[in-house]
Every structure is written in structure tokens, then in C-alpha cells.
Design a protein that fits this description.
By secondary structure, the chain is an alpha/beta fold. The chain is 24% helix and 25% strand. It is built from four helices and eleven strands. The chain has a nine-stranded mixed sheet with strand order 1-4-3-2-11-6-7-8-10. A two-stranded parallel ribbon has the order 5-9. A hairpin with a 4-residue loop joins strand 2 (98-101) and strand 3 (106-110). Residues 1-49 have low confidence and may be disordered. Its EC number is 2.3.2.-. Pathway: Cell wall biogenesis; peptidoglycan biosynthesis. Residues 96-232 form the L,D-TPase catalytic domain.
Length: 234
């Protein structure tokens, strides 16, 4: 005897329909959520290097309190891999050491416990690359730029600044400068601030190394005179 068999079938059918409804609702929610988040730019916004364009816009925003107010960087003109980032970095160099990697267009500041702050950079063009150990012999804020004699010979238009170009946004050294020395003598090379985002990740200089102004201020503030600088071979 099948007591209540018909009702049991109906209960099973109702349960199956309810289960399907739940699955459909869940699937719709997930798809809808993805579409909604995508519309607000929240899906896929973080890069493999860990910084979204929205985050970069904050990090590289304007610096109005400077002697010469620094405008925001147009971050759309910078490859995201060159945004400032803290990474794992194996080195025997002491914390605080600056390491320049011209082949990959990066500057590292060695941190504690196997980490480093990594900055995107521009570097010397072919024929102007150099490598070796140096140190920060002096520092400058909105420094006067004086082109070396060798540059004036190559580029006569620089002669008008032979006595020095005052600091400012148009000055090639920008907001901050670290002057590199070897054995007590100035090498003529610097790590400087650039306001040209398009140059990051390229070899364009006469051997100097440029960081975005906001990155350079960050590095400058944490770098005392006598800090070791290692420039790797290109």
C-alpha cells in the first residue's frame, strides 16, 4: 500500500522547483553583481603590481604646499608597473641603500626584513649609462641647475644657463635632487624629480636618473647624506 504516495511526489516536485529558483536567483545575483561592479570600475581595477588608477591618482596627486606647487601626474601616461610599490627584494645591501636598475627602469630603496620600496624611473640613454657604487654627497630642494661644459658643447642652446638656472617647475632638476659622489668628488650624476610622466620607463637622460616628483619627494625625505647608492650595469 502506498499511503500518501501522490503527496510525496508533489512535495518532491515543489522542493525541486524551489531549489532551481534558488540557483537561478543566486546565478542572477552573481552576474548582476559583476556587471554592477564593472560599471563602477571596481572589478579588475587592481593591477598585478597592486595599485589601481584610482589609488595612483591619490598617490600622485597635486602637492600645493610646495614652494612651487606641483601639479597632479597624469597617471594614464605612466605604465602601471612603474607606480610606487613595496615588494620583496633580496639583497645583501643594508636598509636605506638606494639601488638603481637601469635595465628595468627601477630605483629601489632597501627596507627592513627583505623588502624594498620600488619606484619607476627614467635613466641614461645609450652612450650615457654608467654603473658602480656611489653615495649621496649632498641634497637639494628646488636646486639651481647648471649644465656641465660637456653638455654645453653637445647642446649649445644650454649655454644661456651656464651661470645657473633658478629652481622651479621648468628646471630640469625639479623639486628634489640627490647628488651622487665617489671618493669625495661629484660624479655629475644625480637622482632628480621629473614632471614628465611620459619619460618614466625610458632612456632619455645624460646619465642621470629621474623619478616622478611625488616619488622623488618620498625618496628624498628618507635619504640622508652619505647614503650608499648602487647603480647596476645596464
Amino acid at each position: 500500500m502506498n499511503m500518501g504516495g501522490g503527496n510525496a511526489g508533489k512535495v518532491d516536485e515543489i522542493a525541486l522547483l524551489r531549489r532551481r529558483a534558488v540557483l537561478v536567483s543566486r546565478r542572477s545575483f552573481l552576474v548582476g553583481s559583476a556587471v554592477g561592479l564593472g560599471a563602477f570600475g571596481l572589478t579588475g581595477c587592481a593591477t598585478p603590481d597592486g595599485m589601481s588608477l584610482a589609488e595612483a591618482a591619490k598617490v600622485y596627486g597635486p602637492v600645493p604646499e610646495e614652494k612651487f606647487p606641483i601639479p597632479a601626474v597624469d597617471v594614464s601616461k605612466v605604465d602601471r608597473k612603474y607606480f610606487r610599490r613595496t615588494i620583496r627584494y633580496d639583497t645583501e645591501e643594508a636598509p636605506g641603500t638606494i639601488i638603481v636598475d637601469p635595465s628595468n627602469y627601477y630605483v629601489y630603496r632597501v627596507e627592513e626584513d627583505g623588502f624594498a620600496t620600488r619606484y619607476g624611473a627614467n635613466v641614461g640613454r645609450e652612450g650615457f649609462l654608467w654603473h658602480g657604487d656611489a653615495y649621496v654627497g649632498r641634497k637639494g630642494e628646488w636646486a639651481t641647475w647648471t649644465p656641465p661644459k660637456e653638455m654645453i658643447q653637445r647642446q649649445p642652446e644650454a649655454a644661456k644657463y651656464a651661470r645657473g638656472m633658478p629652481g622651479g617647475l621648468d628646471n630640469p632638476l625639479g623639486a628634489r635632487t640627490l647628488y651622487l659622489y665617489q671618493n669625495g668628488a661629484y660624479t655629475l650624476y644625480t637622482i632628480y624629480a621629473t614632471s614628465d610622466p611620459e619619460t618614466i620607463g625610458s632612456g632619455i637622460t645624460s646619465g642621470c636618473v629621474g623619478l616622478l616628483s611625488q616619488d622623488m619627494i618620498d625618496l628624498y625625505d628618507r635619504t640622508p647624506v652619505k647614503t650608499k647608492v648602487v647603480v647596476l650595469p645596464a
